[in-house]
Specification:
Elements (H helix, E strand, L loop, with lengths): L1 H31 L2 H29 L9 H30 L3 H31 L2
Helix pairs in contact: 1-2, 1-4, 3-4
Length: 138
C-alpha cells in the first residue's frame, strides 16, 4: 500500500505541474512572445506528462484500478468519464502539436495548440479532483 500511495502522489504531482507549465507556456507566447521560454515550458510539460503516463501504467499493472464508493459516487463518475475521455483525446492532439512545432509548421502548431492547451489543463485539473476523491473520499 505504501508504494501505491507514493506512485499515486508522484503521478498526480507530475500531471499537476505539467498543467501549470502549460498555463505558463501559453502566457509566455501570448503576452510576452518569448518563444524560447515557451518552447522550454512546453517541452518540460510534455516530458512530465510522459512520466505521468509511465507511472500511471505501472500503478495500474501492479495494483489494479481503485474505485470510489463514497456518497458522491455519481459526481465522481461524471468527472471520471469526462477526464478519461479528454485524456485519451488529448494524446494525439499533444503529439500533433509537438510534431508541428518540431517541423516548424507554426501555422498548424498554433491551430492545434488552441485545442490542445485547454484540454490539457482540464485533464490536469480533473485528474486532481479524482485524486482527491480517491485519497480522501469515503
Amino acid at each position: 500500500m505504501y508504494y501505491y500511495k507514493i506512485l499515486t502522489f508522484a503521478s498526480s504531482l507530475l500531471i499537476l505541474v505539467s498543467g501549470v507549465l502549460i498555463v505558463f507556456g501559453v502566457i509566455e507566447i501570448k503576452t510576452r512572445k518569448r518563444i524560447h521560454i515557451h518552447r522550454n515550458l512546453m517541452i518540460s510539460a510534455t516530458f512530465l506528462a510522459a512520466l505521468f503516463l509511465i507511472l500511471y501504467v505501472i500503478k495500474y499493472i501492479v495494483f489494479g484500478q481503485k474505485h470510489y464508493h463514497g456518497s458522491m459516487r455519481e459526481i465522481y463518475l461524471i468527472i471520471l468519464f469526462f477526464h478519461s475521455s479528454l485524456a485519451v483525446l488529448n494524446i494525439p492532439f499533444a503529439l500533433f502539436t509537438l510534431f508541428f512545432a518540431l517541423i516548424r509548421r507554426f501555422d498548424l502548431h498554433k491551430k492545434v495548440a488552441k485545442i490542445t492547451a485547454p484540454i490539457w489543463i482540464v485533464v490536469a485539473l480533473t485528474g486532481w479532483i479524482i485524486f482527491i476523491f480517491l485519497a480522501f473520499g469515503e
